[in-house]
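The instructor's notes for this session suggest beginning with a concrete chain rather than abstract definitions. Hand out the sequence below and ask the class to guess, before any prediction is shown, which regions might be ordered.
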Amino acid sequence: MAKPPEQLQGNKNKPCLICNRVRVCPYSGRCRSCYKKQYYSENREICLERTKNYNKKCPEKYELWKRKSQYRRRYGIEFSDVKKMFENQKGLCAICACVLPRWSEIHGLGKSCLDHCHKSKKVRGVLCRKCNLCLGFSGDRAEVLELAAKYLRKCHNEEYL
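After discussion, reveal the predicted structure:
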């Protein structure tokens, strides 16, 4: 049953007893976020068990949530941005143009890799695992990759020992 408007007005714009921010404080003078934090700290094991059970019941939702938060946390981009990048590359590796595993709404790139600059954390493109490893082992240094290409061209034109 909904509370009458006069009872709700008593809860509006009060400073929270814990964080002191002026908010709606329906939880014994605490705002919702402070209440949730306190509840979790007092019932941590119960909350973890409940989450674990839910993740077992709905592994697809958990995997999707994990992937989305990973893209957001690591690279500052949304899941939809990664999907657009994949589609703009027509499902091909940005370096060798091999066909990447198809896009999955749950696993996203799957075995493909989201290439990014390690200094700026800016995303550069979607690569196959081999190309991503190649860039990683070169330390993202273009001059090392150019020397490797020069070496391969030289060896290709010569007889092996």
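Then share the key points. Residues 50-156 form a domain with the His-Me finger endonuclease fold fold (CATH 3.40.1800.10). Residues 11 and 26 are 6 Å apart (CA to CA).
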